[in-house]
Write a structure and sequence with these properties.
Blueprint lengths: L3 E5 L3 H12 L4 E5 L13 E3 L1 H5 L6 E5 L8 H12 L3 E2 L2 E2 L4 E2 L4 E2 L4 E2 L4 E2 L4 E2 L4 E2 L4 E2 L4 E2 L4 E2 L4 E2 L4 E2 L4 E2 L4 E2 L4 E2 L4 E2 L4 E2 L7 E4 L4 E5 L3
Parallel strand pairs: 1-2, 1-4, 2-3, 4-5, 6-9, 7-10, 8-11, 9-12, 10-13, 11-14, 12-15, 13-16, 14-17, 15-18, 16-19, 17-20, 18-21, 19-22, 21-23
Antiparallel strand pairs: 23-24
Length: 213
Amino acid sequence: MSRRIVILGGGGHARMLADTLQQQGLHVSGYGAPQDEGELLPGIPYLGDDHRIFKQEVDAVELVNGVGAVGDNRLRRSLFEIFSAHGFRFLKVVHNAASLSPLASLGAGCQLLPGAIVNTRARLGDNVIVNSGALVEHDCEIGGHTHIASGAVLCGACTLGEDVHIGAGAVVIQGLSIGNGAIIAAGAVVTKNVKPMTLVAGVPAQTKRVLNG
């Protein structure tokens, strides 16, 4: 028996994912969110808040994490961990216009949006977003719950910790390490390792402040 697909979240990222799934001929049963925003897309109704989704039968549902992450991945991570702890499974979503090497690996719930490229031997942890037009080059290691925003470029053999945000159009030069919880501002060019929980910006990128956990 095929599982019903339910999306968590009712915003723009959730709509992108719903559109991707519909293009692939998959039926989305509905979405969950704190409040009713109307249909996510035509034919995708509101099902209720998280408590209502928890009442779904675990073996009958496959979840898609539709909560976006713009510099703060905590809500997205929290939803993934809470629902996973209750036995729910998260679907990997790979858009038809994304390119995924057969030698790359994706963790549970990873999402590759239109034009995303993930090259050979790249390894992505759970719940990672590679947004539209972003590039993850060969041999990169991406920690869980990280968001690589639209048009960002990770050159070969970069290592990213968990909960990292790589801003739109940013570039990380090959072989660098980005620590847990770091934020790379949009358009930055990173030419040296970045410490955990720091915000860097500029060309070349410089540390702007230390982030609160």
